[in-house]
Structures are given as C-alpha cells and as structure tokens.
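Lab notebook: predicted structure, single chain.

Context: the supervisor wants predicted structures on file for every construct in the current expression panel, including those that have not yet been purified. This is the next one on the list. No modifications to the sequence; it matches the entry in the shared construct table.
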Amino acid sequence: MRSEVTTDRVMRYLCMDSPIGPLLLTSDGSSLTGVYMDGHHGGGSIGAGWVMDDSTPPLIAARQQLEAYFRGELTEFDLKLEPSGTDFQRRVWRELRAIGYGETLSYGELARRLGDPNASRAVGLANGRNPLSIVVPCHRVIGANGKLVGYGGGLGRKAILLDFEKAVRSLGPHDLMPAPDSLFAEPV
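Prediction complete. Output recorded below exactly as produced.
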C-alpha cells in the first residue's frame, strides 16, 4: 500500500507600518514569499486560513531588514526568498536583485541582460507580478525614455523609493520621511 504525504504549509503573515504605508509580509514558514503595499495591484490580501505570526524567523528578519532599509542603513537584502512564479518570472526577479541600490534600468536593458533583447514586454509583465516589492527591487525598472512607468504600489511610491535611494547614496543614511496620505489615495 502506498501512502501519500502532503506538506500543506500554512501561510504566515505580519503587517508592519512603513513610511510608504502599511506592508503585508508573507512566509511559508521557512522563506519570505511576499511583501505587499497597501492597495498593491495584483496582491496584498490576507487569505483564508492564513495565520498572523510575528514570531516566524523569515518574517522577523524581513521586518528588521525593511526597517533598516527605511532608515537608509541597508542597501542590499539578505533574506531567504521563495516567490511563487514561472521559471521566466523567477529569472527576471533574480536579475532585478542585480540592479544596484539607487540605480535604474530600462525594461529593454533588463531583457538584454536575460539574453533576449526582444522580451522587454514579457520582462515588464514579470516585473509587474513580483510578489516581493522593495526586497526584489522592481521599483528600479523604468521606461526606455527614462520615465517612471508601472508599479504595483503606485508611481508615487516608486518615485519616493527611487529618490530616497539616490539621496542615501549621496548623503548617507537617513530616515525616509512618511509619505503624504494623498499618496495612498492615488490609483495604482
């Protein structure tokens, strides 16, 4: 007789305040699986059966590192990540982590780095499905003309994050000031 073992992991989460509004952090118990902003396009809702847990190591580490990031003290995250996505999406997300703090890259250049200069549209779609905002810095990807385009947390937040990173690179660590409430009312 064959027995089947299932490993249904409970999704764990915690909510934290940040200068750009509330963040929802999710974990499968061993890795960080999501960082979502309030009103995040394509995600950010607590699912049925999820457990609020502020003692799960990946969530504790993510909260600590995000707090350090918002103080301008951390420029590269060191977290065990397990985003859910296709092989192509995961390749895009790995490449996003190679974009330097305070730097930007176009979708076309990101596609070239992945070996397919004609895949900028597919790269944009994968970028838009990134479940690990800030940690996997999809906010550092811009249009070919240098303009800010597309961001699940809204273009206002994208501009704030990019300006903050550039200021930290120039002036050194300092706190990101809380964003105005009007930022959270804009459509994503």
